[in-house]
Amino acid sequence: MAQTLGPVAALLLGVFFLVTGSGLQNTLLPLRGAFEGFSAINLGILGSSYYLGFVTGCLAVPHLVRRSGHIRAFAALTAGVVATMLAHPIFVEPYFWFVMRAITGFCFAGLYLVIESWLNDRATNQTRGFVMSAYVMVDYAALTAGQMMITLYPVRSFELFALAAILFSLATLPVVISSSGQPAPIETARIRLPRLFRAAPVAMVGCFVIGLTNGSLWSLGPIFGIGSGLTSDGAATFMSAIVVAGAIAQWPVGFFSDRMDRRRILGALMVGAMLASLALGALQFGLVGLSVLGLVFGALAMPAYSLAAAHAYDLTPASDAVETAAGLLLLYGIGSVVGPAAASFGMQHYGPGALFFFMAGCYALLLLFVVWRMCLGDRRPALKPPAMVMEEGAACVPTGTVPAPDGEAEEAARQAPPVKLSSRLFKGSARPRGPGEPPFPGDQDGRSDGA
């Protein structure tokens, strides 16, 4: 464990400070907006504004990373988050907050792009599920800590805004002063979504749908709690229950996903998340009941993004880590722009339970797509880590490759009937290709170490 996480320990510490501030900010802003008289539609637009900036950042920040490097880009974007956080209490007005949230979303898109591409540069297909799970566990633990800080001072006070800004500032320290090397500079800053979709369709659709649900949850979950009769402290407790359960569930989900088809686990999680969402939307409970249901929901829904992202990195070259991260975050961001606006419309007309009914519908659609890809649309065998791991710079060829036949042997090879090979026969070795056969969709260039 220490050997796996050691190279990214400083980055994970920076993530903890960053996401703690984000958790406080995400809980504080909708609650403060509600106390200031913002309508449900305005609060939904506030969440969508963040993700509109997030989408823009996914398109623009790769160029910043290419020009400045990972560390400098991280420091610059964190400074932008601090500035916007302190601007909120100065002008408490919906349209100004929309702009500030868009800028914050732009900066966080870049921060997550740097973090996830950095993590996957240090991971292999054998350790990616564990590394991504550790990252998301840190992420969710920090979110919980940030959300509970809402109880330290009154929501109308300036202290909570200042505390979030301090946490954002601390995030740069371990990253900037660490002796651990950053990833090599990226050569291109393209985002080729069709190419990524061909490589990992379940991951791409999954990130979009998870954006729909997570964006709605972070933007409107506290409002659901207040609409269900909870106080602001109770709403923070409900949200924290979701996050704590999600953090705890990361390890077993990551462990099993490194040993079997990640899509199977994603489909199973979607079944449970859909049922838990329906229960939250339909049943009336107090704080204890909602918190228990929140624990169940969080354990089933929250690991989905890291699982989908790990599946995408399995099927894309390591040299494209920044492009893959940008593509995943772009689709997540697009979903998160649409999700809060759609869910807030339902809450405005049908009550707070509409939030989780909307999320249940999203999980059902993703489940259907996963089943379709596995049963009908995707005949490729699952890419298992031991079969595809390559050393840095190694050619992507199967173990034990022999020279291509020539003369009579070549003619015999052309006339030989095709042989269907089970992926089970090649457990522990790369899948072989016949003469003249194009690369398989899962084949990768260079190192095969890849949310």
Automatic annotation (TrEMBL):
<feature type="transmembrane region" description="Helical">
    <location>
        <begin position="292"/>
        <end position="313"/>
    </location>
</feature>
<dbReference type="InterPro" id="IPR011701">
    <property type="entry name" value="MFS"/>
</dbReference>
<feature type="transmembrane region" description="Helical">
    <location>
        <begin position="39"/>
        <end position="61"/>
    </location>
</feature>
<feature type="transmembrane region" description="Helical">
    <location>
        <begin position="265"/>
        <end position="286"/>
    </location>
</feature>
<dbReference type="InterPro" id="IPR047200">
    <property type="entry name" value="MFS_YcaD-like"/>
</dbReference>
<feature type="transmembrane region" description="Helical">
    <location>
        <begin position="160"/>
        <end position="178"/>
    </location>
</feature>
<feature type="region of interest" description="Disordered">
    <location>
        <begin position="400"/>
        <end position="451"/>
    </location>
</feature>
<feature type="transmembrane region" description="Helical">
    <location>
        <begin position="235"/>
        <end position="253"/>
    </location>
</feature>
<feature type="transmembrane region" description="Helical">
    <location>
        <begin position="325"/>
        <end position="347"/>
    </location>
</feature>
<feature type="transmembrane region" description="Helical">
    <location>
        <begin position="353"/>
        <end position="372"/>
    </location>
</feature>
<protein>
    <submittedName>
        <fullName>MFS family permease</fullName>
    </submittedName>
</protein>
<feature type="transmembrane region" description="Helical">
    <location>
        <begin position="73"/>
        <end position="92"/>
    </location>
</feature>
<keyword id="KW-1133">Transmembrane helix</keyword>
<dbReference type="Pfam" id="PF07690">
    <property type="entry name" value="MFS_1"/>
</dbReference>
<feature type="transmembrane region" description="Helical">
    <location>
        <begin position="131"/>
        <end position="154"/>
    </location>
</feature>
<dbReference type="InterPro" id="IPR036259">
    <property type="entry name" value="MFS_trans_sf"/>
</dbReference>
<feature type="transmembrane region" description="Helical">
    <location>
        <begin position="98"/>
        <end position="119"/>
    </location>
</feature>
<keyword id="KW-0472">Membrane</keyword>
<feature type="transmembrane region" description="Helical">
    <location>
        <begin position="199"/>
        <end position="220"/>
    </location>
</feature>
<keyword id="KW-0812">Transmembrane</keyword>
